[in-house]
Amino acid sequence: MNLFELAPEYIRAIQPYQPGKPISELVRDLGLDKNEVIKLASNENPLGTSPLAREAMIQALSESARYPDGSGFELKAALSDRLGVSAEQIVLGNGSNDVLELASRIFLRPGTSAIYSQYAFAIYPLLAQAVGARGITVPARNYGHDLEAMLDAITPETRIIFIANPNNPTGTLCDARDLLRFIERVPPDVLVILDQAYDEYLPEANKTNSVAWLKNFQNLVITHTFSKAYGLASVRVGFALAHADIANLMNRIRQPFNVNSIGLAAAQAALDDVEFVKLSYMTNRTGMQQMIAGLDQLGVGFIPSFGNFVSIQIDGHQADTLKIYKSLLQQGVIVRPLGNYGMPNHLRVTIGIEEENKRFLYALEQALKESD
């Protein structure tokens, strides 16, 4: 028996997460001009990086020979001041995926189960499978979370429920009141992980004051990322908010230097760049209106979205969707096919700046004409 076969079967069965196609790969594959390619596949900020964060990263480079502050003291202090929680309630991560994994490693193991919605973030089933836990997929309602059905799916073996709000890749949103009633009815020995990666793109009327809920629910963990609205996807900084006891457990197994010095400096500076986040929000709102108007004009269906992306539906079979996808690539436009999410007739498109949205809509029109 070789070493591969000695690995647990549930590890060998994992299908690795497929990220969005990078620009460099498309340039290599099709020989396109890099400057003519636009990427609308990974929900990145089309405005780039917060200017304050960029300057902080440049300054932090001078200390690159030294290990980062393993406790992330200054970033935690800034988050504590901004969010009104104690530093003991904060767990820093190498992106929000990192803190999601920490919670999963603590509470999931063979013989336990995790619950997540159909069409939810693909990382959730991977996290369960990686530790040998059973993943329970609850059928979606109108592409969103069916909270009642998720409650009904709880068993004595359930240890974690994942809720993405807004959800990726569908962009759907749970009402705050419904979400609070849901958490109130979840047994206290089941952890609810509320993934709010796209929270900054929500209008104030749709935001959930989830931080205030931490006082009443020891079994609530809230995750956030600096990858989206703050434009720091490449430096990988995320964080979790939790009851101090839960955060303590997560910090016990966290890698000592899981967030590098560049990321720590960038995230702290980005928190202060209120104008950049506001501009990112407004650019997304305007771009979403532009995108929806263009899709309506083309007669292309889509799922109404509260994120910085929209999932469009291509009529016909999966082959038709892949044909459209390949045509877009040939025109230098990268989007995200959603077949691995169980949505073979959908493509997810990140909202870009005005010219990028216009470019996508034109390319989509050409692709649809070619497929007729």
TrEMBL record:
Domain of life: Bacteria
Ranges for domain Aminotransferase class I/classII large: 36-361
Reported cofactor(s): pyridoxal 5'-phosphate
Modified sites of kind N6-(pyridoxal phosphate)lysine: 228
CDD domains xrefs: AAT_like
Pathway(s) served: Amino-acid biosynthesis; L-histidine biosynthesis; L-histidine from 5-phospho-alpha-D-ribose 1-diphosphate: step 7/9
GO BP annotations, alphabetical order: L-histidine biosynthetic process
Broad EC category: transferase
Single GO MF descriptor: pyridoxal phosphate binding
Protein EC: 2.6.1.9
Similarity remark: Belongs to the class-II pyridoxal-phosphate-dependent aminotransferase family. Histidinol-phosphate aminotransferase subfamily.
Keyword list, A-Z: Amino-acid biosynthesis, Aminotransferase, Histidine biosynthesis, Pyridoxal phosphate, Transferase
Known partners and oligomeric status: Homodimer.
Catalytic reaction list: L-histidinol phosphate + 2-oxoglutarate = 3-(imidazol-4-yl)-2-oxopropyl phosphate + L-glutamate
Protein name, as recorded: Histidinol-phosphate aminotransferase
